[in-house]
Q: What sequence folds into this?
């Protein structure tokens, strides 16, 4: 059997894995490839991680490399920065973005800034992973979407894997980066499954991706909202509205060229973000589209974002506060109203 | 509102024929974009624009000959929308109705198609006018093709002067410029013979590892040596204008290229002193090809700071050049020839080149000129630094 035939067969029967398993496989692979890599965080060892990502890794790699830490984000993120400065390649897991605020001083004032403050002498090759987002009835203090806080900071690279392929492949590329990288894993994605070729490997982290091509409106999104946008695009397609869906993948730096190229074709843009609208990532993306695509726009840039309240606990209120496929589709229809596509 | 004028593509140009427009009203152009092709007596030249802007009007039709400095197009700021169009303004004021709500794209398209947005609104688009409304108004038939393409296709072939005419007018232009040079510039001439043994051996070594197409010719080495020397010695690299010398910081080396149909053109190899040899070689090849196919850019025509003429393998052994105004110096390299040469009290046979300098006495004296030739020789003795 030729190699090509083998490839085709493997592709056809590619294993289905969960996002959680894909992240774990990424960590395992990195640990095997580079003995400077280690994982550190709350409950990552004996408990297997707050979201079960590191299940089994302690047994495989031992206590030296899978390290349980005290409940002290400022402390262990600082230790991770120190280890990175000392030549290691730490992966620090912060259970959720809500708790990362305790480590924000370390991340902003140390990790993101040391290269600058040392006149280029000290870089910090640290990777921080954390879960983000709501939608699972965990109440306000466990449901925040603060990616925009981090995407605001020069000196950081901020990634948001929204697919199993990116969950599997972004980590190694992030570890290769000489500077700090923050990876946001949306909590609702861990149980999502998808096909992943057995030989999957590192992926690029510089470019946004067109997840679904279309021609009437561009939906720009990332992370947990990608699935909602694809669902909305499916519903819109049934009405003859072809939505293009862009997964930003990298939140800092933003690959806005891919967005501009799309908007230049569709002439309408809807930015979808689970975070609050005011001063959020959606504001940044919308502003850039306004700056660069003004003369290509046939409708104002639209946004679907969280209602500006702490995320409520009751299910019906939480659903009402966060973006949904229905809200996204409705907003897209509004952008198209007054044009042929909507009249047809 | 800035005017875009017929550029001067060299001191000998007094007028130019606008052959082709590469920009159209409504287009946004950026500094460095090639926006037109202009025919001079010498060749067709691609014209770059030097500032960003939105094209408001073209003032000169293709095929028209106008003097240098004549406004040929009007550019507006990039940010100006259709609302700022001067031709639309009086009509708007006459009917002080509410401003039409139209998308930016619809406004842009309306401007391109000459569609009145108020008419579109009044004819049944009471909400926001979109691009679809504008296109429907412009083309009542469905799915009309965009008009730009057919317009372009139907344009007649760009008028190009018959070859004989061009040769004659080029000869006249060269004659006029050289006569002016000899009339105005008090030339002085120096010459010096340089032993090229070391540099040619070094070059042979360098070329041994290269594919045939990537080899570097001795001419490129001589150009680089001249460029570096021009940077070093003051009073050689620059322009004499309005009774004063303006030393130039960048060395844009005018490379004299003889054209196949006769005639001569000396476009600039920009920043030749900073180009690595391989890039200089590639730049030189590119320049010669484009000079002979008539696709030079305006900046290459107008900004050489010093010219080098290199006679090559078939040329004479020695050339006394005529300075190209407003430049103040011209370096000439003759054919590389083997000569008997005294080395350490013995006679050897060495490849040599005779380098000459024609320089402007209003700016420099023989002493400085001598320094330039010495600097060229010195540079060629240290080929590894070229």
A:
């Amino acid at each position: 059997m030729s190699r090509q035939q083998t490839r085709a067969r493997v592709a056809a029967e590619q294993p289905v894995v969960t996002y959680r398993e894909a992240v774990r496989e990424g960590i395992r692979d990195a640990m095997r490839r580079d003995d400077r890599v280690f994982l550190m965080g709350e409950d990552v060892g004996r408990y297997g991680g707050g979201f079960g990502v590191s299940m089994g890794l302690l047994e495989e790699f031992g206590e030296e490399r899978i390290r349980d830490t005290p409940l002290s984000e400022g402390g262990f993120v600082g230790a991770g920065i120190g280890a990175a400065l000392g030549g290691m390649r730490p992966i620090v897991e912060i259970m959720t973005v809500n708790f990362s605020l305790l480590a924000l001083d370390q991340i902003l004032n140390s990790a993101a800034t040391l290269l600058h403050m040392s006149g280029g002498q000290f870089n910090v090759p640290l990777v921080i992973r954390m879960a983000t987002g709501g939608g699972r009835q965990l109440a306000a203090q466990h449901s925040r979407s603060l990616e925009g806080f981090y995407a605001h900071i020069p000196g950081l690279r901020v990634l948001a894997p929204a697919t199993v392929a990116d969950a599997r492949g972004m980590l190694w590329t992030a570890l290769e980066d000489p500077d700090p990288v923050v990876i946001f894993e949306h909590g609702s994605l861990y149980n999502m499954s998808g096909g992943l070729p057995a030989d999957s490997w590192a992926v690029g982290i510089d470019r946004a991706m067109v997840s679904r091509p279309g021609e009437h409106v561009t939906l720009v999104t990332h992370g947990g909202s990608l699935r909602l946008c694809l669902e909305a695009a499916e519903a819109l397609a049934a009405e003859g509205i072809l939505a293009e869906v862009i997964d930003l993948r990298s939140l800092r730096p933003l690959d806005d060229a891919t967005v501009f190229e799309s908007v230049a074709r569709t002439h309408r843009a809807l930015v979808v973000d689970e975070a609050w609208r005011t001063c959020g990532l959606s504001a940044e993306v919308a502003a850039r589209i306004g700056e660069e695509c003004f003369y290509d726009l046939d409708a104002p840039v639209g946004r679907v974002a969280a209602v500006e309240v702490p995320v409520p606990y009751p299910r019906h209120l939480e659903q009402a506060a966060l973006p949904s496929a229905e809200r996204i589709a409705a907003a897209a229809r509004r952008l198209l109203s007054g044009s042929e596509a909507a009249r047809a | 509102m800035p005017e875009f004028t017929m550029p001067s593509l060299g001191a000998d140009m007094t007028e130019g024929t606008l052959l082709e427009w590469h920009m159209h009203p409504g287009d946004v152009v950026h500094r460095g974009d090639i926006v037109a092709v202009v025919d001079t007596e010498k060749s067709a030249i691609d014209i770059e624009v030097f500032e960003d802007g939105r094209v408001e009007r073209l003032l000169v039709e293709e095929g028209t000959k106008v003097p240098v400095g004549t406004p040929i197009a009007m550019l507006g700021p990039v940010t100006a929308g259709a609302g700022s169009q001067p031709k639309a303004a009086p009509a708007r004021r006459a009917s002080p109705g509410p401003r039409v709500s139209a998308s930016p794209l619809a406004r842009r398209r309306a401007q391109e198609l000459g569609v009145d947005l108020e008419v579109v609104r009044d004819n049944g688009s009471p909400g926001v006018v979109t691009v679809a409304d504008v296109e429907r108004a412009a083309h009542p038939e469905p799915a009309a093709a965009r008009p730009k393409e057919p317009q372009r296709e139907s344009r007649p072939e760009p008028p190009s002067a018959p070859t004989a005419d061009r040769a004659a007018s080029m000869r006249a232009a060269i004659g006029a410029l050289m006569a002016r040079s000899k009339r105005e510039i008090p030339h002085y001439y120096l010459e010096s013979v340089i032993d090229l043994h070391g540099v040619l051996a070094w070059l042979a070594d360098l070329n041994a590892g290269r594919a045939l197409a990537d080899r570097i010719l001795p001419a490129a080495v001589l150009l680089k040596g001249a460029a570096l020397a021009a940077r070093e010695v003051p009073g050689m690299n620059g322009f004499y204008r309005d009774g004063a010398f303006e030393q130039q910081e960048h060395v844009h080396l005018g490379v004299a290229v003889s054209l196949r149909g006769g005639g001569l053109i000396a476009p600039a190899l920009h920043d030749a002193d900073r180009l690595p040899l391989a890039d200089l070689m590639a730049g030189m090849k590119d320049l010669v090809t484009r000079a002979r196919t008539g696709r030079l850019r305006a900046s290459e025509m107008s900004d050489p700071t010093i010219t080098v003429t290199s006679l090559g393998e078939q040329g004479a052994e020695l050339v006394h050049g005529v300075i190209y105004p407003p430049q103040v110096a011209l370096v000439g390299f003759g054919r590389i020839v083997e000569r008997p040469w005294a080395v350490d009290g013995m006679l050897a046979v060495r490849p040599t080149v005779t380098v000459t300098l024609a320089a402007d006495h209003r700016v420099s004296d023989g002493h400085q000129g001598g320094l330039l030739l010495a600097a060229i020789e010195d540079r060629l003795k240290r080929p590894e630094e070229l």
